[in-house]
Amino acid sequence: MSINVFERSTKRIVTTTTFDDHERQQWAGKAAAFQDSFASLCAYPAGPLLDAAAVGADVRVLDVGTGTGTVAALACARAAKVTAADAEPSMLEIARRRAPDAETRHAILPHLPFPDDYFHAVVANFVLNHVGDPAAAIREMRRVVRRDGRLAVTIWPYPQPAAQQLWGVVFDAAGVQRPTDLPRIAPDKDFARTQGGLAALLDHAGLVDVHCDTITWTHRTHPETWWAGPANGLGTPGMLMRRQDPATIARIRHHYDQHTAPYRDADGQLGLPTAALLASATVN
Questions:
Q1: Does residue 106 come out as left (phi exceeding 0), alpha (psi in the -120 to 50 range) or beta?
Q2: Which of 87, 112, 83, 90 is nearest to 7 (CA)?
Q3: How many angstroms separate the CA atoms of 131 and 143, rounded?
Q4: Could you give the CA distance from residue 71 to residue 84 in angstroms, rounded to a whole number?
Q5: What is the mean pLDDT of residues 193-209?
């Protein structure tokens, strides 16, 4: 099912899906929890993402789905002319503090409230994982980039890397049943979360010079920080955690401590292997 919203200011029809609505509900008011838990995980590809989009001094760049402003702040440090957009107001509040030199705008993909050909570059860090129509999102990002401008995106791959798989292992060990009522991306709108699948998404949007790489790293974090994300309702693990009774939460925590133990170093920090896909292209 989809919901049509008429944007009077631009005379355009914006189509969102039940998946989009679910995502916005999941992230509503969660900016502080995200900043204190998973933001450092998502920050790792920020530099390579901006490099892929050729973002430097005086480049007019749009950071779509800025979250708490990690990429926007880094782009400002490069003396770029930054606009940071997000669908979640609580994210924008933190982004304004982290990147005070950036313009911030509320925007919900697949609609961006900017004119055609306005930016030199657009970047989106782990945004396509959270939209119901990834192809429409890419087309909209392409629309606002001028000819010969750059577009760069990251996503989490599938199969999942070890850091993300860990939660599934923990829930399985605790005997937690997976919900069957979650909205999913329609099969005709989904794409393979692989290098080839992401590259094809950009290619089909009419972009050229498409390139896609896998970035791997070890995410260093404290066990309590990694636990705090789902414990505060973030992402699918958080949604699943929120549905459990206290006894089940205690059982999940027991298995969490067991299964994270092999990743702990002498200082008690976790070292979690993870990966992301980074794709970039030129607007022709």
A1: beta
A2: 112
A3: 17
A4: 9
A5: 97
Backbone region of residue 29 per phi and psi (left: phi > 0; alpha: psi in -120 to 50; beta: other values)? left
Q: Is the backbone of residue 65 left (phi > 0), alpha (psi -120 to 50) or beta? A: left
CATH architecture group of domain 2-161+187-217+278-282: 3-Layer(aba) Sandwich (3.40)
Averaged pLDDT, 96-108:
97
Strand partners, 105: 85
Strands 208-221 and 270-282, sheet pairing: antiparallel
Peptide bond into 230 cis (omega under 30): no
pLDDT at 8 > cutoff 90: no
Instruction: Confirm if 7 and 202 have CB atoms less than 8 A apart.
Output: no
Full-model pTM: 0.90
Sequence-distant (≥ 6) Cβ neighbours of residue 95 within 8 angstroms: 66, 67, 68, 69, 72, 84, 86, 102, 104
pLDDT of residue 265: 95
* Burial of 159 (C-beta count, 10 Å sphere; 0-12/13-18/19+): exposed
